[in-house]
Design brief:
By secondary structure, the protein is an alpha/beta fold. The chain is built from ten helices and eight strands. It has a domain of about 160 residues: Aldolase class I (TIM Barrel, Alpha-Beta Barrel), CATH 3.20.20. The longest helix has 16 residues. It is globular, with a radius of gyration of 18 Å.
């Protein structure tokens, strides 16, 4: 059966994740070059290395991106705003922002709304895009739905499942829930544990337009392999 995707579609779903704190500068450089070579959607890199990432990606269609309030979301709003300002100064075009998880679990939705609105406004003022990370491992469905509605009203660009640093990561059921309860203009990003093409395709079928992964090379190698097989005459298969 012919695939319902092509290589470019899959590559442009991937935010290549370079967020392991143990990555060296040489490894971060290699990761940026790999992402550029494979023409993925973006590189999501450790904040201190974002300016170098933007330099390495200059002239390509791969967006430099980083995180804000990562990985626990517990920074004060003032600190998160400072992170946004620095990230935009360093060339960030997409920012992955963790909500204040404690405030969400406490039901303080006005705090969440105010913070997300301020961070989104600051990001959009520089024509950059924002992804709001829920960290679904800690939330029940009611909280996830409330966050989707709140983020939709504010006008964020993506809502995102996970940081990849909690006990569990992306789940197809969560992606479907988030897609159902978000307005169409808000996209869904799945992250955490996406290491194979099949998992990426499951997230895609569930409604995700982006995935975060550090297994980009393996996923795209499998994608090329499958598409090449499908191009062979039937008798060869």
């Amino acid at each position: 059966m012919k695939a319902d995707y092509n290589y470019i579609e899959i590559a442009k779903m991937i935010d290549h994740s370079l967020l392991n704190p143990a990555l060296t500068a040489a490894e971060l450089d290699r990761g940026c070059r790999l992402a550029r070579e494979h023409d993925v959607a973006s590189v999501c890199i450790l904040p201190y290395y974002l300016a170098r990432c933007a330099e390495l990606l200059s002239g390509s269609d791969v967006q430099p991106s980083t995180t804000v309030g990562f990985p626990h979301g517990a920074h004060s709003t003032k600190v998160k705003l400072a992170e946004v300002e620095q990230a935009l100064k360093d060339g960030g075009r997409e920012l992955d922002v963790v909500i204040n998880i404690s405030k969400a679990l406490s039901g303080d939705w006005e705090y969440i709304r105010s913070e997300v609105e301020l961070l989104t406004r600051a990001t959009h003022a520089r024509s950059a895009k924002v992804k709001i990370i829920f960290e679904n491992a800690y939330l029940d469905n009611a909280a996830k739905i409330t966050l989707c509605q709140l983020c939709g009203e504010i006008g964020v660009d993506w809502v995102k499942t996970s940081t990849g640093f909690a006990a569990s990561g992306a789940a197809a059921a969560d992606v479907r829930l988030m897609r159902t309860h978000s307005p169409r203009q808000v996209q869904i990003k799945a992250a955490g544990g996406i290491r194979t093409l099949d998992t990426l395709l499951e997230m895609r079928a569930s409604g995700a337009s982006r995935v975060g992964s550090s297994s980009t090379e393996q996923i795209l190698a499998e994608c090329r392999h499958r598409l090449k097989l499908q191009e062979q005459p039937a008798e060869v298969l």
